[in-house]
């Protein structure tokens, strides 16, 4: 490991007896540099072990070759999976990855997180877990910004698929445990549930209070639903709340799926190992990340936005928490 600050472009230029512009041309393989000068600069680069940093690349190319991502800093499975997919997809494009969390900027929310990325130097920004707090639509930047809720509406389709599956088993209607409604993803899942009920001509039951994605919120909603006559099927906005509901139904002496069927969302690793194993839907986070970056890079590089974007795959994992109504 090298200790301390490595040599900069100006040190290379001074040692080679050329300008910084000439060094940048050599580093980037540009023309208009004689073979003799190129060889001399390359020899100095090797001797000094010069590695262009992001700031140098920005001077060389006029860009930072870095993508910024704003995250809520949530440890929930869905947002964490999206973040990992974004980082992997970004690095595959050859861009570096910078992360800013709204948790690190509690007073400023999205605006402060975006500002911190701009101070670091980024060519574009992805809003990975868009919520209303901080008003992403009000952001004004001089770099392109893409929000995942704009490029990926598959949350609606996934929620619709989970609800339709329960209806296909013969349930008269499906009750919903919603997520926090300042999250765009929770609203998409609520919309998908409503669309499925409306398309089937099924009555729309009243909603319990919106949960906070936690098992505790699902448990509270599950206890309320266990005391509500006629509940035979429940779609929870995420697996953690579905897990809380499973516990509540068990405490109330109700069998899953004998008395109540339950479908979750996200297909977390633990879902297949619950008692009973949880039926759940999931989105292809890797495909979503790649789509978002494709749209963002097209804007950064001045290319046409990809058109004809196909619907991203939605997968329904059918397990033992669902059955026809009693």
Automatic annotation (TrEMBL):
Gene3D superfamilies: 3.40.50.2300, lambda repressor-like DNA-binding domains
Lineage: Bacteria, Bacillati, Actinomycetota, Actinomycetes, Kitasatosporales
One Pfam family of this chain: Peripla_BP_3
Ranges where the HTH lacI-type domain occurs: 7-61
CDD domains: HTH_LacI (cd01392), PBP1_LacI (cd01574)
Entry keywords, A to Z: DNA-binding, Transcription, Transcription regulation
Name the UniProt record assigns to this protein: LacI family transcriptional regulator
PROSITE patterns named in the record: HTH_LACI_1, HTH_LACI_2
InterPro entries from the UniProt entry: HTH_LacI, LacI/GalR-like_sensor, Lambda_DNA-bd_dom_sf, Peripla_BP_I
GO MF annotation list: DNA-binding transcription factor activity; transcription cis-regulatory region binding
